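Our preliminary data section would be incomplete without showing what the modeling component actually yields. Below, a chain of 244 amino acids is followed by its predicted structure, encoded as tokens that our downstream tools consume directly.
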Amino acid sequence: MIRIIPAIDIIDGKCVRLSQGDYDRKKVYSESVVEIAKQFEKAGIEHIHVVDLDGAKSKHIVNAKALKDIASETGLEIDFGGGIKTDEDINIAFQNGAKQVTIGSIAVQRRDLFLSWLKKYGADRIILGADMKDGFISVNGWKKGSSEALIPFLESYVKEGVKLVLCTDISKDGMLQGPTVQLYKDIMTQFPTLKLIASGGVSSMKDIEELDKAGIYAVVTGKAIYENKITLEEITHYIKTHKN
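Predicted structure:
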């Protein structure tokens, strides 16, 4: 069964969503990230993806308190990303309750640092963030492109022992137009042992079922839940009927 991972994106301590990573196209869904997290836990969800959008923009963790509050008031396993640029940042993330961290920009800009974290914390706790647009990796909260092509980028890190990859199609993110399923199938064809987490464009349970059939390990979804395109009741039912 594919793992369904709701996203909680944070700006100013609030739960928000952007469209295509554009900070000027922000919608606030809740003043309380903890209450949102509790709703997810009540629905039977076990994992969430928390993104510090302020941190991604500022290049250091900003919303550590929100992370700590979610971790202390729920039993959810948290994957945290956004603004992790230094040893101090990654320590802050883990000390405030993150079980895993997603590292994107540093993997492009400081390969040596990323690999040192991979070695120190292990491949089960470090998720390689591959935020992609038009086949190339984007960095710094999607505000800057790079010359790194997606497949060679993934290949170089899989060779180093990376097991978990969160791949986001930026052009689809927050648009509710369906995910780029073929992209994820292509990645799995090239890297069949990878635990691939798909993100961007999910608009319905049908999209999630399609990704599940494609053998994708997990899917991150945000706006579809907040806009009631996918209800928590549907997720609960899916978990109950598909759990081994």
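Residues 5 and 220 are 5 Å apart (CA to CA). The longest helix spans residues 111-121. Preliminary results of this kind motivate Aim 1 of the renewal.
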